Amino acid sequence: MDDATARMRLETMLHELDRSIGVLRGDPVALQDRSAADAGADLTDADRTQAMIDAAKRQRTAVLAALKRLDDGGYGQCVDCGRPVPEGRLEARPEAARCVQCQARVERRR
Ligand SMILES: [Zn+2]
């Protein structure tokens, strides 16, 4: 995948993330209009919405970091070991910052 394609895909992702974060943020307001009887369910919905917002924000941060690597010329290299991130991995996840091995190591640390 060349840099121009990567940039285009990342910018599309960023745009879609911004839109879904906006939509999700609108949700709790709508939920507050419901009757008090639904309060328990509302809390669950609000928690779920918040979790989705958090996930979208994390992905947004990863996309922004990938765009910065494109600017800096480091795109497509693993941020941990410096080896090239496999093409297939970038196709599936253009925002990937690490090769599969380093990503697995990071996720084990969590
Ligand atoms: Zn690596």
TrEMBL record:
<keyword id="KW-0862">Zinc</keyword>
<keyword id="KW-0479">Metal-binding</keyword>
<keyword id="KW-0863">Zinc-finger</keyword>
<dbReference type="Pfam" id="PF01258">
    <property type="entry name" value="zf-dskA_traR"/>
</dbReference>
<protein>
    <recommendedName>
        <fullName>Zinc finger DksA/TraR C4-type domain-containing protein</fullName>
    </recommendedName>
</protein>
<dbReference type="InterPro" id="IPR000962">
    <property type="entry name" value="Znf_DskA_TraR"/>
</dbReference>
<feature type="domain" description="Zinc finger DksA/TraR C4-type">
    <location>
        <begin position="73"/>
        <end position="108"/>
    </location>
</feature>
<feature type="zinc finger region" description="dksA C4-type">
    <location>
        <begin position="78"/>
        <end position="102"/>
    </location>
</feature>
